[in-house]
Amino acid sequence: MVEAARGFVQKLTVPRSSYEQLWSTKSDIFEQSKIGHISRTRRLHEGRRKIKQGSKEYDCAGRFALLFLRHDIDETVASLKDITLRQGQKKATVAYERIARDLSTTVKALKSDKAHSRHYLSLLTKSGPGDLLELGNSVSNL
């Protein structure tokens, strides 16, 4: 119940158009068989299998996106050479503020993404990319 409640609180905002196209006849997720009629149950079962597989692929891509984002943040910090900083201000603060503004997001969200990438980077450097590729989709937030 706690996980369900957390899911409602942290729900994703999805564009309305995605719901309108969820059962679209243009989608091949729940398509008819090329060899003839198959039962609705089989189409639903096969469609669910395709969705789960797609979810795994997106999870993997998401992990790599976090690693690349971390790299880009680090590169932005390193590229700040001739800037004037306020007293007590660090280059990282300036970099986060610039990136957040460019991405129309918050510094807090960027720092959260970078923090999540820390464990993936550790896994990548210790075990190689294979483990990162094969990581189960239930382990999306190390």
Can you describe this structure?
This protein is mainly alpha-helical and 142 residues long. The chain has a domain at 40-79 and 90-142. Helices cover 65% and strands 0% of the residues. It has helices at 2-9, 16-20, 40-79, 91-103, 107-127, 129-134. Helix 3 crosses helix 4 and helix 4 (91-103) packs across helix 5 (107-127). The chain is elongated and about 70 Å long. The chain starts with a helix and ends in an 8-residue tail after the last helix. The mean pLDDT is 76.
Query: What is the distance, rounded to the nearest whole angstrom, between the alpha carbons of the first and last residues?
Result: 22 Å
From the spread of the alpha carbons, the general shape counts as elongated
The residue-averaged pLDDT reads 76
Can you write the helix and strand succession as a string? HHHHHH
Q: Tally the helices: what do you get? A: 6
Beta percentage is: under 5%
Strand count:
0
Helix content: 55-70%
Classification by helices and strands = mainly alpha
Contiguous low-pLDDT stretches (5 residues minimum) are none
Radius of gyration: 21 Å
The biggest beta sheet reads: none
